[in-house]
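Thread: Modeling a multi-component assembly for a lab meeting

Hi all, long-time lurker, first post. My supervisor asked me to bring a structural picture of a complex we are working on to next week's group meeting, and I have zero experience with this. I have the sequence lines for every component (558 residues in total). Could someone generate the structure of the whole assembly? Inputs are pasted exactly as I received them:
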Amino acid sequence: MALQDLYREVILDHYKNPRNRGRLEKVDASAEGVNPMCGDEITIELTIKGDTVVDVAVDGHGCSISQSSASMMTDAIKGKSRAEIEEITSRFRAMMSLDEDTAFELDPERPGAVLGDIEALQGVRQYPVRIKCASLGWTTLAEALKGGTDNTISV
Amino acid sequence: MIDLTHLKADFPVLENGVHFLDSGASSQQPIPVLEAMDRFARTSYANVHRGAYKLSIASTEAYEAARVRVSEFIGSADPSQVVFTRGTTTALNMVASGWGMEHLGEGDRIIATEIEHHSNLVPWQMVAKRTGATLEHIPMTDDFRLDFDAFESMLGPDVKIVTMTGMSNVLGTIPPVRKFADLAHGVGARLVVDAAQLVPHAPVNVEEMGADFVAFSGHKMLGPTGIGILWGKMEALEEMEPFEGGGEMISNVTLHDATWAPIPTRFEAGTPPIIEAVGLHAAIDYLESIGMDKVFAHDRELTAIALERLGDVPGLTLQGPADLDNRGGVVSMVMDGVHAHDLATILDEGGVSVRAGHHCAKPLMQRMGVAATARASFYVYNEEADIDALVSGLRTARELFGM
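Re: Modeling a multi-component assembly
Sure thing. I ran the full set together rather than chain by chain. Output:
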């Protein structure tokens, strides 16, 4: 049944017990992402040391897909360099078929290639209207990584 | 309830287990409506007005016949008080801009409500900003009604216009417009009603309603998209400047000036929605063949069943009046631990179409302290089985989310 494929256990776990939730004390970069169609909102705050995102926090509200995706994303990027985060993000986008020219394949040799829990979001592809939900946190993260704390993006 | 034995066959889209519970957003069109538009396009279509040939004359007659039909349907004294627009949103913008820009200024007050659809809120925000008038809102009571006492205390000679929904698209609440109209008129204000949800679902007599302007859409009342109505009292329409300039709406034009055509043509610049008017005519015929009293009663019975059955679903909170009085067939739901969008996806898997989100009423969502609701709305083709499917889908959602 497709629904069980969409709402996998790990997704529901991140939805009910979101990781890295709240606000940071030291915010080096942040962004607010909104999906005006559905009203989902996500705020991403980052603490950056040199080239590394040493801490990340997510705040906001929305459906299980947007919130769990953002939660899994924080686990995946915490402690990672910008290059690694870029790699993870492009892997995620490829998995969601967001970049048509990037084929999705799991190559364990590539840094950041293993998406881990995030792979559970593959079921979302069967529900095209929900892909935007899954990508809200990631789009917001990309906006935050541009630097500054006054970023907002509408998806 | 309406006998659906034959009626259901008029809506082919509802075959094969489609439980369509989103008529509040847009209703389905029955075969007689589709056939009327098809027949007209095949036999009688041309642009309306001023055509000296047979097709244009036939087309003009059909377009004007639709105006007369709408006028009868809503109890208007005169068909020329019926202005065809693109939809409710355009109709409300016509009033906000065409009336508001002319008659509002610094120190004037506009009163709207907390429960409005964005289409009856944003146009007034725009006019307030441009004219310096202030915009205030009648609050909602905790039982999801408009606070009439608060409205009374807000009134004063500086209130120039009051604008309110005829039936909330989120709550189903039907405010007693007449009472509000009488008070508004007492201070010399004009009253606007967004009747997009009301006219399709309840018998409406605009003269008895007491409003100065009433707006509604064809596509929520079994008709096509692209056509709506602005009805106005003649003296109110006369106070309004045209929203758009162009063809059709003029009396005379020179290089630097123009005079306006009579009402309603003055407000219908450009080629109007002609085929859509024919479709709307057929939709009204269809609704009246059922009877608007029966349509309202049908929605009410379904709402009664829904409120009872949904009340048994654990973790589900209903946002809207708990009683059936002055309430339409709209039921908004919030489930603990399951977001409205997830509900909509899960329900869709069982063939149940509901709308999820803020329903273009973000201030109301804020007032209720929720980010989104899932909304089921009923119409003539819905039946108990649709509610069964809804309830079953809600239970599936709880199971999936481990509730």
